[in-house]
Amino acid sequence: MFGYVTIQMGSLSKEQCDRYRAFYCGLCRSLKKRYGGLGQITLSYDATFLLIILSSLYEPDETGGTERCVPHPFKPHAYIENEICGYCADMNIALAYHKCKDNWMDDRSVISAGQMKLLEKAYNKVHAAYPEKCAEIERCLLEISKLEHENLMAPDAPANLTAQMLGIVYRYKEDMWGDTLQHVGEALGRFIYLMDAYDDLPADIRKKRYNPLQPFGSNDDYEDFVKDSLTLLIAECTEAFEILPLVQDIDILRNILYAGCWSRYEQIQQKRDPKKGKLEPSNKNG
To answer: Given this model, what pLDDT does residue 240 score?
Structure first.
């Protein structure tokens, strides 16, 4: 996954940061239970945000505790689990599988091909449980691939397909909040697509890969164009988000949407080469 949807730790209390980490570790435990150590490797900040927002909205019973694990063998750490963890773990696997597949299609990366093969059994399990959601994810990614092969240099079309893909993931239930959650996911999907394109543009130009921002990159107002577009998209997301009757962990969720989502953008600005006016290669995590 992309790793853009995370917290800004400096703006949260220690207790809030600890609770965020507990959700992160709870999701990790669910991935291990359902898919073994391979599932844990796919753990992402994006799926953690999905877990927290759905948990805040539906308020399921929580279980928790402390434990040591392979990534943290020396110090016990807290975790939170609930019934929504399983859904978020499944969606995390689906998106991780297709991310590996996309990397393989774009770069013919042997590593990505190997990861995709390793995740195939887990993805088939998710597909059997959520055939309609997986079909929509596959449809959107196929359409994006077609746009890339056509070399369509307009970001709206692939961004809207990413929006549709993430929107169906956020639509957890067919209830009164389904449409609003889908709108949150759709707006966040457009934001993520544009941020990813902005992040990858220098490397894509160097490696001659598709990037719909390439025609805009040499414009004098390019930076303003990107920032204004990102601001508009995340505003659409927060507008839908604020409709939801959320109380539990609301400060953590607002921290992510109003500050944390901009963390990578700020890192890009800090890494700008003042002599060449270019960005250093991307090093995304999560």
So the answer is: 98
Q: Rounded to 10 degrees, what is the CA torsion of 120, 121, 122, 128? A: 100
Going from the first residue of the chain to its last (286 residues), give the mean pLDDT of each consecutive group of 10, the final group possibly shorter.
Answer: 85 95 96 93 95 98 86 82 97 92 72 84 96 96 92 92 97 97 98 95 91 93 95 98 98 97 91 53 48
Question: Contact at 8 Å (CB) between 279 and 202?
Answer: yes
CA distance 71 to 73: 6
Question: Radius of gyration of the chain from Cα atoms?
Answer: 19
Measured distance CA(270)–CA(144) in Å, rounded: 30
Tokens 């998710």 locate to 126
**What is the phi/psi pair of residue 244, to 5°?**
-70, 140
272 Cβ contact partners less than 8 Å away, ≥ 6 residues apart: 278, 279
Q: State the pLDDT at residue 248.
A: 97
CATH code for the domain of 69:
1.10.600.10
Which of these, 234, 191, 256, lies nearest to 52 by C-alpha position? 256
Q: Could you list the residue range(s) of the whole structural domain that residue 125 is in?
A: 9-270
The helix or strand, by DSSP H or E, that contains position 281, with its residue range, turns out to be none
Question: Could you give the CA distance from residue 30 to residue 55 in angstroms, rounded to a whole number?
Answer: 15
Domain assignment of residue 283, yes or no: no
HEC string of 56-85 equals: HHHCCCCEEEEECCCCCCCCCEEEEECCHH
